[in-house]
Amino acid sequence: MCLGFLANVGANAWLCEARAQEAPAYRWQNVTVGGGGFAPGIVFSPAEAGLAYLRTDMGGAYRWDSARSRWIPLQDGETESSYMGIESIAPDPVDPDIVYLAAGMGSWGPAAIFRSGDRGAHWRKTPVPFPMGGNEGGRGLGERLAVDPHHNHRLFFGSRHDGLWRSTDSGAHWRTVDSFPLPGLDTPESPRQTHGGLSFVIFDPAHAGRVYVGSADPGARHLFRSDDGGESWRAVAGGPEATLLPVKAAVGSDGVLTITYSDDIGPNGITRGAVWRHDPASGAWRDITPEAGPDAPVGGYMGVAVSAEDPEAIAVSTIGRFQPGDTVWRSHDAGESWIELRKISERDVSATPFLFFDHERVAFGHWISGLAIDPFDSEHAAYVTGATLYATQQFGTRRDMVWKPWTRGIEQTAIITFVSPTGGAHLVSGFGDLGGFRHDDLTVSPPHVHRNPMLTNTNSLDYAGLAPQVMVRSGNTHQPTVPDSSLAWSNDGGESWTPLYTPDLASMSPDAPERTGNAAITVSADGSTFLVETRDPLVTEDRGESWAPVLGLPFGSRVTADKVDPQRFYAIDFEANKLLRSDDSGAHFRPAGSTGLPDDLSGARTHGREAANPLVAVPGSAGHLWLLIGDTLYRSADYGESWERAGNGIAIKRYGLGKAAENSDWPAIYAIATLSGVTGIYRSINGGSSWGRINDDAHQWGLRFRVITGDPRIFGRVYLGTDGRGIFYGDPAEREE
Length: 737
Known about the structure:
Methylamine Dehydrogenase, Chain H, 5-stranded mixed sheet, 1% helix
């Protein structure tokens, strides 16, 4: 039994091991945003109407459930982070219950072929020796994985680095196809680097044994064909110049192949492209590029689809065309003439209004690498973007086509930070790429992202503990230097924002923290004081009208404000290995007593602007602090003068605080941690003496966890930010709705 904590952590013999704690079962739900990230591929099943699959670059795969009218995530029980990056997806063309995934985030991580006989509800995995790049350049290529419709136990996979591979036992075992002409670019003398490799594998359903493979690597030949099920191969002569790379292809019921080309594997870096058709019966090639010649906009082509009902009804998408914007082209006569759909269609984003991004009109989309026409309903088509998945039921309509986000159930975003304030909305978030949101209703997509300034990434957020409507944030854009301001404050709980400008901002060097978004910002408990971690830290008490230097605070110290006492701020001096405290609203910092802390505090140093603050103040309790050093948690109840170690034996990576249990002296602690060899989400309600795991084997999300906190107003509520599956909120399962 644990008999208590000693103030002196040097007496380790008296410290108890962290014990397993009985924890209630938890119910986990996504905080609704709706899409939000890049899903490189959308594939309809050719075996059953109403069945489709979506692959994402870091959030796993989804299946469309037509009965429930929502997308079902298929890998939430996964524990391997790399497997959440999906390189390719292949529904069986004969049996609608069978589906395959090629999973692997990048060449640095493990890769596997997943196979399921129940539409992805359960998986069997075969680790494979050929690396993948589900979140590398070229992730929009494909599909690289294909099932032979005439012998559906036979599959081919076109790898990036190691040539063509084949399975003859439904994906259980794989071996190289030695007869294929391209073995791959990598050699022992040449380390693996991102390149396209074999970009697609396509079986021709109308001709048994016929299969095509494209190569997006440099070379004289880019298209290869087999007519005997892959036993022998030949290069297909003709087509565009060799500098254009085949990125995607589709075959019609007439056997004609439509191929999109770009001069780079993308999704960035593409400057030109083309669309060609190849008729294997005659050997003829035909250039059908919608916009060609020297006056064509910069950019290439990637998405391609052919109607199953009419092989001359085809569609292609542009990619990398930033001016006037990417688009989809549709043809009813095999490319003799084209209609640009961006010009004749509307986007109805009422379900996910953040897609306006503060513009009057919603953009058609960027990074349109995936495009598909429903094989059972040619009026139903879909395309992916870097922020959502659109679908229409009017694809054959010549005018007034409406596209809507097809994202119910999809949450594919990377979370950097969030806060759960003591008042106002229960959650305010900071995202990568989308900036972040005020979440007034966790079940409804927010009306807009953080604006004024609009920063693609929010790196730090803070709220005033006694005046929670006052908030501050910092962030960056996709450019090296933030063009205007990287700082903002809000007086209405994050609904609206006002930029903050530090002195001489325009004349600062490009690497100044406030120019790059590296300067975190903190607000005092009463909301009157903002402290910014610039190279020479600054403080303002008049909303940025004037600034004063902070004395005694070294650059690189992460600051925390007391949530009750507006005079108190805290930080760590890593050079002196001392906890610092300000007792005069951030004007001066001096060493606190800090007894009970280790001599070396470097384990609390944050790395990078997106790192969570290891020093957290307790809402509602003046002077109560928690500090994570390495993987060990400490607590103080006297403004940092003395500290106790909060448990032993649990290795904590991230943590946050929530409302205390009834009759408890300690806030609930929620942690991303490892206990007894099991990594998961843990909770302690007794100050860290014992811990209970509150996620289960069905809720692991690749263990891609970034940030966690509790709710100061709802006991048991925890918020979890992932890298690819959005935000989850968890409640004890027995709680009444």
